[in-house]
Amino acid sequence: MSEANDKVPAGTPAGTPPAAASRPEAIKAIPVRHYGRWISAILVLAVLGLLVNAFANANVNYGAIPDFLFDSAVLKGLRNTVIITVVSMALGLILGIVLAVMRLSKNPVTSSVAWGYIWFFRGTPVYVQLLIWFNLALIFPVINLGFYKDEMNQFMTPFMAALLGLGLNEAAYMSEIVRAGIQSVDEGQTEASHALGMTQGQNLRRVVLPQAMRVIVPPTGNEFINMLKTSSLAAQAAQYAELLRSTTDIGNTTGATVEMLFLAAVWYLVLTSVFSVGQYYLERRYARGTTRNLPPTPWQRVRANLGTFRRPEVAR
């Protein structure tokens, strides 16, 4: 040991080791307090409290909601809502892919036809389209497709009118979403697939569309949720017995009109939540090919948001 290390500072009690005597005093750091966050949280909770108090004191018989929550007519309307949403969305997606390919075609005829379809269906309200399909018998009393002939009233059932009105309208929007996804793929991918001997169709199925899915899936999920709610228009325009129509009929019979509207809102929120979870994990799956760090799960987001209200840890 050197002579310098053996020296003890003046005033140090006898017997104190030299290293402990020279240790600096611990820093007493004061964490930053975010008063603005607490004030804004209190204001938001106050507004929510006022809203809850207003609805609690309103002239609404909330006890009627759980009584009819699992009523057979409500569950039938719920099933019809899910069916028409899924089938119409499938029709819109398939036809939307076809229209997107036609729109990107170098053939001026197919490109123009696709553009005209998109222009027409995006330019007219879906409610008007549903009314036209449901009243098509006024224009064509008989449907004759060559292999199928029948009275239009027999063919154009409420389900068929809702399917055509919602599905064909959705195809116009899906075609634009798919077109944006296809155009997001680098052209070098197509050139490379052609160099490997792939045809245009093989390139589309095996190269372009799988890469375009990460762009297509998020807005498609939004369209699906929107379709879930738009299907309620089919009740009024096409007499389709979906969820809103079932609850409205019960409300007109029992006099609990507002209560049944709340019940319908509860089921729409449940369906939206379930399908939103599915959309999230579908997006997460297709994001694996483009990012190393996957987006956080909903539980991880909740923990992260709760952590913002905690006092930051201070190094000691």
Question: What do these coordinates show?
Answer:
There is one protein chain. A two-stranded antiparallel ribbon has the order 1-2. It is mainly α and 316 residues long. It is built from 14 helices and two strands; from the N terminus they run ααααααββαααααααα. The longest helix has 33 residues, at 72-104. α4 runs antiparallel to α5 (108-123), α4 packs across α8 (158-183) and α9 (187-195) crosses α10 (200-230). Residues 1-6 have low confidence and may be disordered. The protein starts with 17 loop residues before the first helix and ends in a 9-residue tail after the last helix. The protein has helices at residues 18-21, 35-56, 64-68, 72-104, 108-123, 126-134, 152-155, 158-183, 187-195, 200-230, 233-238, 243-254, 257-286, 298-307, and strands spanning 142-144, 149-151.
Mean pLDDT: 85
Quote the beta fraction: under 5%
- Strand order of the main beta sheet, please? 1-2
Instruction: Tell me the overall shape.
Output: flat
Descriptors for this entry?
two-stranded antiparallel sheet, 2 strands, 14 helices, disordered N terminus, mainly alpha
What layout of secondary structure does this protein have?
Elements: H1 18-21, H2 35-56, H3 64-68, H4 72-104, H5 108-123, H6 126-134, E1 142-144, E2 149-151, H7 152-155, H8 158-183, H9 187-195, H10 200-230, H11 233-238, H12 243-254, H13 257-286, H14 298-307
Antiparallel strand pairs: 1-2
